Amino acid sequence: MDEKNIVTKTTQGQMQRRLHETAEKGKIIQLIIFQLGDEEFGTDIDQVREIVRLGPITPIPDSPDFIKGVTNVRGEIAVVIDLKRRFFLRMKKNIEEKHIIITEQENNLFGLMVDEVSEVLRIPETDIKATPELVTRIDRVYINGVLTLENRLIIMLDLRKVLSEEELTKLSEIRIRHRAAIEKAEEKRAKAADSVERIADSKKKKTKN
């Protein structure tokens, strides 16, 4: 998985001791940790297909404001969702989204824009506790619980619940409808890049002569 080898903030030795001490508590799970505005979130690695850098996105006319558009992921089309807009989270100035978390729902690909994927954690499943009241602005229906790690509060987001069944249906239709549009946009970008390369080569030849 792309970028899942991100170095964790917790030292390897500390994590090894922690896992050894709590191994008897139950199942060990892996979490993808990411930032959204002022809050830190985690999601089960099994819900993530891959993590990619934010790249070209083709806008979709007349779509909800939390739909950024569609993008090409290794030849497949993914509908890109701005999670901060989806959950009405505060936008931090001078902070741009860096990563897209790719998840597959109902045989369709979706890309969830996040500020940054920071690390991968391995923890005992029993460390995840019930969600307290007023822990976040996000509706608790989307949350599996919380993880307290030293002075950090990590909110567990269930990616399967981020989109309702009705929204999944609509986004699936968008994905199919705009496949041709994104392929045309990719072709246009490729031609532009090729044109720039030819001009650069021509200038080099003139300089040599």
Q: CATH superfamily, called what?
A: CheA-289, Domain 4
Overall spatial form: elongated
How many domains? The number is 1
C-alpha-based Rg, rounded: 21 Å
Going across the biggest sheet, name each strand in turn.
8-1-2-10-9
Number of helices: 4
What proportion strand? 25-35%
What structural class results from the helix and strand content? Answer: alpha+beta
Provide mean pLDDT, rounded: 78
Key attributes of the depicted protein:
about 210 residues, OB fold (Dihydrolipoamide Acetyltransferase, E2P), five-stranded mixed sheet, disordered N terminus, 10 strands, alpha+beta, elongated, about 35% strand
Explain what this protein looks like in three dimensions:
- This protein has helices spanning 12-22, 83-86, 165-177, 179-208, and strands at 28-36, 39-44, 50-53, 67-73, 76-82, 99-105, 108-114, 116-124, 143-149, 152-157.
- By secondary structure, it is α+β, with helices and mostly antiparallel strands.
- The protein has a single domain (12-177), classed as CheA-289, Domain 4 (OB fold (Dihydrolipoamide Acetyltransferase, E2P), Beta Barrel), CATH 2.40.50.180.
- It has a 5-stranded mixed beta sheet with strand order 8-1-2-10-9. A 5-stranded mixed beta sheet has the order 3-6-7-5-4.
- A hairpin with a 2-residue loop joins strand 1 and strand 2.
- The longest helix has 30 residues, at 179-208.
- The protein starts with 11 loop residues before the first helix and ends with a helix.
